[in-house]
Amino acid sequence: MKIAKKVLNLLKEVEAVARENGAAAYLVGGPVRDLLLNRGNLDLDVVIEGDAAQIAKSLVDKKGGTFVVHKRFGTATVTLKNGIKIDLATARKEYYGRPAALPTVEFSTVIEDLYRRDFTINAMAIDISKKQFGRLLDFFGGEKDLAGKKIRVIHDQSFIDDPTRILRAVRFEQRLGFKIEDHTEGLIKASVKRRMLEATGKERLRDELILMLKENEPGRMIKRLQALAGLGFIHPKLRFTKKSEVFFNEIKKMETKGSEPWLIYLTALLDGLSLKEAADVARQFVFKKNEQERLLEFKKESAGIIKLLKTKGKIPLSRLRRHLEPISLETLLAIMVKGRSRLVNKRISIFLSECKGVALKMSGEDLKKMGLPAGPRFKRILDAVLDAKLDKGFKNKAQEMKFARRCVKNGL
Ligand code: CTP
User: Ligand 1 centroid to 164 CA: how many Å?
Assistant: First the structure.
């Protein structure tokens, strides 16, 4: 097991602070899994047998950074000055009912914390105390499942307790190139049959769905989820078709810098639904207002924009800007895929590189200095100057001002 020096030192510091506060500390969950797999993961999850909030405070007192305490969950998140995040949790007893026979060892509270977790590979801990530093605590065969590339639940109630774990099983399976083992797959199918996903809080499902779409291969994730559980819990008419797969693959090939790619994938996923059906999904899953808007914008605007961008002849930059500036980057990128036209792609690319975000060097202040009273006329004039800047290629403020003066003179 290779621990990066930076992480190693940090863990030692966390432990020292815990010890000073009379608490024991263990690295748990995802970071342990990723350490054993030699996959980078800088976000640390630490279980404290003691008061997590107190440790967070002491750690920040010592190292700087900020921390937030979530009282209700007994957890605290520290963000250090270098951006590393440490989640600290007070070890808590599992809340789904106690298993018949837990081994009685000194780590009983950590065991109980681990027992309530989703999969064996996510339920290991590393003791980071000075005496035992680096000792792996693996009560459920996580190390063996890492070696055998298996996603396995710890107990049979797991998907009943928390059906969002069905999405998590797929996410880890596809991310790591593992396989959901047969018994676990059987439990998923049983839970799907009981329509557990339909009975689960939509907001929690939404969060897991977003995480899936943020992975490297969202298309593979959704395809597998459909095969295993269907997508009816999102919308009864939703299908991930060959067409959806092509849409996803095309998005993956694009440069998506500055956008939220998961939203483009979700747009692609909902492409087969009507506007009303997609609006139902957006509302029921309580996406944020600006996410809902971007999701539905594609349905409302894409046909009109594609038609405009396919017109022959020249489209001045100012006209491109007027039509495309109000459209989100996610929608524009989705349109580039959907338009299936070199001309559409070229024009959107031109808009993105030459118009989007272009601002004037002059401002309303300059118009005031010209003696113009503030009012709606300002916006008209500045808009006209911006159009001219794009179409005529103004390079400096003097050119803008000259054009503005002409607008004023012409009574715009
Ligand atoms: N967990 C769980 N059931 C859930 C969500 C989380 O048991 N429905 C547990 C898992 O043990 C997981 C830990 O809580 O390892 C932390 O959750 P999260 O940060 O979502 O998982 P990571 O394993 O850290 O995943 P990632 O690598 O995607 O950050």
Answer: 11
Residue 153 is predicted with a pLDDT of: 98
pLDDT of residue 1 exceeding 60, the answer is yes
Asked if residue 7 has pLDDT above 90, the reply is no
- Nearest protein CA to atom 9 of ligand 1, as residue: 117
Residues 351 and 370 in one domain: no
Read out DSSP for 250-289?
Answer: HHHHS--TTS-HHHHHHHHHGGGS-HHHHHHHHHHTT--H
Burial of 261 (0-12, 13-18, 19+ CB in 10 A): middle
pLDDT tens, residue by residue, 256-274: 999 999 999 999 999 999 9
Please check whether residues 73 and 11 belong to one and the same domain.
Answer: yes
Say how far apart CA 334 and CA 324 lie, in whole Å: 13
Give me the pLDDT at residue 99, please.
42
Cα(204) to centroid(ligand 1), Å: 13
First to last CA, the chain: 71
Ligand 1: lining residues by beta carbon, under 6 Å: 29-30, 45, 117-118, 122-123, 162, 164-165, 168
Position 168 pLDDT exceeds 60: yes
Work out the angle between the directed axes of helices 261-269 and 242-253 (0-180°, nearest 10). 160
Decide if 110 is inside a domain. Answer: yes
Domain closes at, from 148, 175, 210: 148
The pLDDT value recorded for residue 100 is: 40
Structural domain containing residue 404:
364-409
How remote is the CA of residue 226 from the centroid of ligand 1, in Å?
22
Does residue 95 register a pLDDT over 90?
A: no
168 assigned to some structural domain: no
Number of domains in the chain: 3
Which residue's CA is minimally distant from atom 26 of ligand 1?
A: 30
Give the number of the atom of ligand 1 that is nearest the alpha carbon of residue 172: 28
